[in-house]
């Protein structure tokens, strides 16, 4: 696989399992802010590549408007195929050859774990990791790492509490990836169940390299479970919903926030099969008619039309990338003329209740030096065949 290095914002505009095409851009000033990123543009988790494409498109918009405090953003994003060894290789290249100022929003739990110690030893900011693993909120051991998503433990607790409230006698099945992300979700989920943990009647795992989870689905259906937490990446989340329908198994299905994309999960699963599925949201769903007249959604839609004309406007991953890039831009703006790594870290860990346009009302991005997870709240939503329909209160840390 070969990559052409560019000077300007580097945007991945096409990807396959074998190659990536990098869009050439005009050269920019030497004082550009270089941000590095790894994402799976190929491989089993390639749906997440949408996040980085959206981030690149947002930075391109900022560059067209003059950049941040007079600096253009050079966003260098490389494919790691969701493979930790490849993440190590690409991250080292970005740090040691391209000399990025910080890593931003690299995707995935296992990939980011593989470089966390390296980046912290190098004192390179590892900012707004695109994952909800609890270890991104450990500033005493990893002071240069800052997460983004609500932690998987928090999310797991919220879903367990929701189940006990709405189906107190539920028999529950859960599938998780055999990696740290799954373990975090399971830990929080069991904590949320508390003394009801014995209602978890089936617990199974999968490997990201597995072709399907059909055999696990059969085992969970046979357990008699009437609630199913499909804690899986998009490919397997879609498989789970589709397989449940084909077996005639009709549990209450819960999807994690990392796999509730309309286009990457619900459509491949079959929209008719996904009716009634619930999840937790912290972003506005572009498919939800309640936002039709929302100024923020109109602005987002105009940005999509101009900067990502061929991208799917129904994909929440485009909203996530847009929002993550806004947070990063705010951090860089707050740095003013001090673009040292120390100051970038300081600004990233002192965000004050940022009410961003595409966050749900009542949810803000907030960090303190001893609690560096920016998004700490969710609202439950149910799929009605067309969009996610919000219900209930904002849940999580206040």
Description:
The protein has 398 residues and is an alpha/beta fold. The protein has two domains: 11-150 and 295-376, Rossmann fold (3-Layer(aba) Sandwich); 152-281, Rossmann fold (3-Layer(aba) Sandwich). 37% of the residues lie in helices and 17% in strands. It has twelve helices and 13 strands. The strands form three sheets. A seven-stranded mixed beta sheet has the order 8-7-9-10-11-12-13, with helices on both faces. A four-stranded parallel beta sheet has the order 4-3-5-6, sandwiched between helices. Strands 1-2 form a two-stranded antiparallel sheet. Strand 1 (11-15) and strand 2 (20-23) form a beta hairpin. Helix 1 (49-64) packs across helix 11 and helix 7 runs parallel beside helix 8. The longest helix is centred in the C-terminal third of the chain and has 20 residues, at 316-335. The chain is globular and about 60 Å long. The termini are far apart. The model is unreliable at 1-29 (pLDDT under 50).
- Given as residue ranges, the uncertain stretches (5+ residues, pLDDT < 50) are 1-29
Helix content: 25-40%
Structural class: alpha/beta
Level-1 CATH class name of the largest domain: Alpha Beta
Measured between the Cα atoms of the first and last residue, the distance is 46 Å
CATH topology of the largest domain: Rossmann fold
